[in-house]
Amino acid sequence: ASCITEEEEAIYVGNHEECVGSSGVDEAVLKTAYEGDIREDISFKNYINCFFTKSGFQDEKGEMRYDVIKSFVPHITQADDLERTITVCEAKKLVGETPADTAFLHFKCYMGKM
Question: Could you read off the pLDDT of 21-59 as tens digits, one per residue?
Fold first, then answer.
């Protein structure tokens, strides 16, 4: 598996930091979410929406950009599993009431919680 470049990593770290600041999400909420304990938290939903939008995974209207998400997959370990997961989540046509809800639903799906 290939890895993301230092430049890409810097962009994602910058997006993360900016989105933590703008959403007000608690780092502990992020940590537990990435460990699989995903809670209905508005600041977390806003963080995911911000991160997905800034990273190009979601457009300003809240539509998921699967082409961009899938182009990122080869940079991740376990890319085959993740690509299958993305395809499954895409087929579910998950749409929330707001862009943040849509981002949250997709995050849950990608984490295997839907």
Answer: 999 999 999 999 988 899 999 999 999 999 999 999 999
**Percent over 90 (pLDDT), the chain:** 57
What is the residue-wise DSSP string for 52-103? HHHTTSB-TTS-B-HHHHHHHGGGSTTHHHHHHHHHHHHHTT---SSHHHHH
> Model pTM greater than 0.70?
yes
Residue 91 lies in domain? 6-110
d(CA 70, CA 87): 9
Residue 110 and residue 114: Cα distance in Å, rounded?
8
The number of distinct structural domains making up the chain is: 1
Residue 101, domain CATH: 1.10.238.20
| Location of structure tokens 């299958």 | 84
